Amino acid sequence: MKQIMTSGLTAVICGMTAFVSCFADTVILSDSPAVVRNAEIREALRQDTTWTSENIQANPYLFIQDQIAKCDKLSTKIEAQNITLVRLGKQAARAAEDADGMITRYSKFLEDAKVAYKKAKTDGKWPITLNGYEFSEEELDDKVADALERVELAKKEKRDNTAIGKKVEIRKGVLKTKKRELMALRRKLVQQAEQVKMNAALAEIGQLHDVLGTIKDMMIEIDEDPTKLSLDDLTAENPDVKRNKKAQSFLND
Fold first, then answer.
1. Per-residue pLDDT of the chain (253 residues; tens, 9 = 90+)
2. Under 8 Å between Cβ of 85 and 226
3. Environment class of 47 (CB within 10 Å of its CB; exposed 0-12, middle 13-18, buried 19+)
4. Which of 3, 47, 107, 213 sits between 20 and 30 A of 41, alpha carbons compared?
5. 183 by DSSP, 3-state: which?
6. In this structure, are residues 3 and 24 in contact, taking their beta carbons and an 8 Å threshold?
7. Phi-psi region for residue 229, left (φ > 0), alpha (ψ -120 to 50) or beta?
């Protein structure tokens, strides 16, 4: 089976390339680690010279307002992705559950077929009756071969959809962390905007330019396609789980 997820879905994450369509898209397992992919895209984005140190200094209030608008846009993207991730996680869970049921059914058939086959070989009595159907030896061989194939396919589907479910949970934790960081950055920008309006001393231009880089980095991280799995994705720890462990450790100390 070439597709990782046979149960399909149609969903588009805001501002992202449509990653699933027509209930039959393929989830791509990339050879490149996510950190490598993101570094390449980040470098390309940093070539954008819309805002330079010079024009930030010339238009600090306009720059800050532009970055606040980007924060709001990214916040909307996070909400849209969370909705999509919930749907994707549920569908992956259902697909894994269905595959598990198929494994159980066909494994039971195979066990019964083996018992019936051995008895028929010993008694020399064919055809045999199995699950209300009669089978000759040749027909039983064909049915067993088919059941073995179905079990292998179901195991793969269960394994792959379980991997998707894990990636979804990790991704949800990452987005939750990014949302907190984004809101903190937005509050800081609002304060800086007020300072500019009051003609108060501005922060160093270098610091404002760093804000631009931070937001561009967030754009890359938030826009990551949750259906493109890499090995580092599947071994990564959910940052929100780690954060909650610290809280529990404090509370139970």
1. 333 333 332 332 233 333 333 323 334 344 556 556 556 555 555 555 578 878 887 888 888 999 999 999 999 999 998 998 999 999 999 999 999 999 999 999 999 999 999 999 899 899 999 999 999 999 999 999 999 999 999 999 999 999 889 888 988 988 999 999 999 999 999 988 888 877 755 555 556 767 777 887 888 777 766 556 554 555 555 555 665 666 556 446 6
2. yes
3. exposed
4. 3
5. helix
6. yes
7. beta
Amino acid symbol at 134 = E
pTM: 0.63
C-alpha to C-alpha distance for 46 and 35, rounded to whole angstroms: 16
Rounded to the nearest 10 degrees, the angle between the axes of helix 137-197 and helix 60-123 is 170
What sign for the dihedral angle of Cα 20, 24, 30, 33? positive
How far from 84 is each of 6, 155, 164, CA to CA, in Å?
18, 26, 13
Residue 130: beta bridge partners? 133
Phi-psi bin for 29: left (phi > 0), alpha (psi -120 to 50), beta?
A: beta
CA atoms within 13 A on the CB side of 243: 10
Q: Of 174, 8, 16, which is closest to residue 92 (Cα–Cα)? A: 8
Q: What's the DSSP call for residue 129? A: E
